[in-house]
Amino acid sequence: MAALGAAGILGLGLAFAFQDMAANFISGIFLAFSKPFKVDDLITTNEIEGFVVEVKLRETLIRTHQGHLITIPNRLLFQNPLINYTRFGKRRADITGGVSYGENLEKVREVAENALQNVPNVIAEDTTFFFEEFGPSSVNFKIRIWVNSSRFGNYLQFINDTIMTLKEAFEENDIRIPFPITTLNFNVKGGEKLSDMKFHVVESKPTSDT
User: Fold this and answer.
1) CATH top-level class for 11-84?
2) Domain boundaries defined on the chain
3) Cα separation of 173 and 178, whole Å?
């Protein structure tokens, strides 16, 4: 009886193992036909982002930005959402910032839109600039700007160029990007007004060396 029980457990384990192998194999076939990605594409799936290194029948190898090589079973790629950043040959960057409450917002928009047309590799006609919210110390805006490249290195350089171009344009037009401001309120309910508080000045006399 013990031998039969052990054989049953072993058989059940093998059944699950072969089931996973079959699922990965079949998923690999579907991926080969649907082609949601190819080698060197930058993808995000199963909370992992990286470049496709090799696509096998049962698994796919992905290299992360940190250089780690990760093996993902194909059934996880087939069954879960997948983002391919490379497929369309372009990519959008969302950049946020803020300007002082004292600025003319129409001027800010005009200066920004004109400057953003000069960012290298920009798709100017797809760029949008809009004010988003009243922040604690600034009127905040968001830029949605597209780069004419899907390569990750070009994307990071594009964000860098956009920020530098925008800051330079604001400085040339005397548009201020404020620092966060903290206001201290001494008239707190339950306390004393600052004007009613009594201050005691203690005079300290210099001492002479003996």
Assistant:
1) mainly beta
2) 11-84, 91-172
3) 15
The pTM of this model reads 0.70
Give the rounded distance of the alpha carbon of 52 from its chain centre.
Answer: 20
The pair of structure tokens assigned to 69 is 């090589």
- pLDDT mean for each 10 residues of the chain (210 residues): 47 55 85 91 94 93 95 93 91 94 96 95 94 93 93 92 96 90 57 55 53
- Is the domain 91-172 a CATH 3.40.50.300 member? no
Which residue do the tokens 């909370």 mark?
47
In Å, how far from its chain's centre is CA 33? 31
Cβ neighbours of residue 185 closer than 8 Å, sequence gap 6 or more: none
Tokens at 97, concatenated: 């910032």
Q: Which residue in 180, 145, 137, 186 sits closest to 165, CA to CA?
A: 145
Confidence (pLDDT) at 81:
93
